[in-house]
Amino acid sequence: MQARKALKAMEKRVAEFQEQHEHINEDTSPETLAKETNDAADLLADLQLHVEPSKLAETESKAKKILTGLGFTESRMAQSVSSLSGGWKMRTALATALLQETDILILDEPTNFLDLLGIIWLQRYLTATVAGSADAPTLILVSHDRDFISLCTDLLILKDKGLEYFHGDLRTYSSSRAEKKAYLTKMQEAQDKQRAHMQQTIQRSLREGKARDDQNRVRQAKSRQKKLDDRMGLQVSARGGRFKLNRDLVGYHLSSRAGIDVPQDDGDLKPVSFALPEPSDLRFPGALISLEKVTFRYGRGVKTPPVLRDVTLSLSMGDRIGILGLNGSGKSTLIKLLVEETMPTSGTMTKHPRLKLGYYSQHAVEALQQIGVADPELAALGLLTREVGSQLDEGEIRGMLAMLGLPGRIASDVPVRKLSGGQLVRLELARILWQRPHCLVLDEATTHLDYETVAALRQALRDWEGTVVIVSHDRWFMRGVVEGLDDDDDSEDEDEGEGDATDLQKRRLVYRLRAGQMALLQGGVQEFEDGVERKVRKMMDL
Description:
Elements lengths: L1 H19 L9 H40 L4 H4 L8 H14 L4 E5 L7 H15 L7 E5 L11 E6 L2 E6 L2 H42 L3 H17 L13 H4 L40 E8 L11 E8 L4 E5 L6 H8 L7 E6 L5 E4 L3 H11 L5 H9 L5 H10 L4 H5 L8 H13 L5 E5 L7 H13 L3 E5 L3 H7 L19 H4 L3 E7 L2 E4 L3 H18 L1
Parallel strand pairs: 1-2, 7-11, 7-12, 9-10, 10-11
Antiparallel strand pairs: 3-4, 5-6, 5-8, 12-13
């Protein structure tokens, strides 16, 4: 309000200045012109004194709202940027980008260092502020988070070294491609059947023509063969109308019809596939990990508030467990207890004596980068060979790396320090999976992965026989792995009820951690998301 009043006052003073000095022309003396110039400079300085404080206050207020939405507390806002950790520095950079007045806003994986509260706030902020008005900047968003990227109205898909444009969201794109594939497959099958029948007729005509020395019939058969080879293909144009040669196939081509090109995938951009090794035999049944009324606090003082309080959790073979919670809720501490990086202050924790546990830490990429810096020539194959020893031969190690997306020379010749973030995630998974673990504990495993790899990992974990415990801010990934929901419509997997007895015994549970206490969410991921949505709405109304 104060800024608008200051602007109106300035506009009035500028109008008065222009009215008073309209008599200035070419005949004006240098002394008069100098005086008028000084008056203009004084007016500009006066205007700046009015504008800058009001604009600064408005900018500061906007900055505080953005920082609060991204998870900053008042104390953290007062810290110098140099004293912040890497994750908070990334959030600061994101806040800086959101604060700027720009024509184009480019965000590359902005959700990587946000919890679900920050992700949903950012999604709402971009929808309401950036994409909500006609003069808003154009948003270019790169993200592997399928739920987050749904705010976009148009897609640019990089595939097969080409660029494909689609008006609509990712779910509509997937559905459209699936329908197109079904249509083209049906068309190709009908055309193949027609082609086979026509080929048989032509061959019969050729045989009979040659047997009877009927040259007219032979020429007719050869003419039909030429038409069959030249004009069999697409019968409709790209717009869905009847194919016309002079309109739909411009330029020089070897045939008068383009072939029917059926998409190789089922519309979900999943060229990557994982085949996770099955767990080794446990020999006798029992819970893999069991926590009974576990409490944990840092330090041994009774007055120190506990990070976790009365946590009870049991993991059995085949379970799918999701852990949700905002920053500071105790998720990392719970994970450290499960993998025995720390021990409970009170309560009991037991483990199956033959349990093999695979743990993916949210800091795994940084740890591998440090290994690469310490040994600049070390490649993925060399690192894994060193850790595996004689338990696997080179062919088996190469096979596992190739299965996870590190084939051939990438595994043997490219140093670890030069691998991308996604490749380092694959390497870390190889370091975990070669031991054939019974239980995988994955703490933000999708952070550095692209969409195709996230989708492939999601599918592989859904079908795996072992136990999976997931901490992730990716709602789509969590729904697929833990709740077993379908890719397109988030409905229950149709095959889930038709599996074997082991599959029917799988438990799919989602827990929420809040202030160190864990509770089962009957509504799953959606229940937690609804609660965060309510909190975001209150934040944006402030």
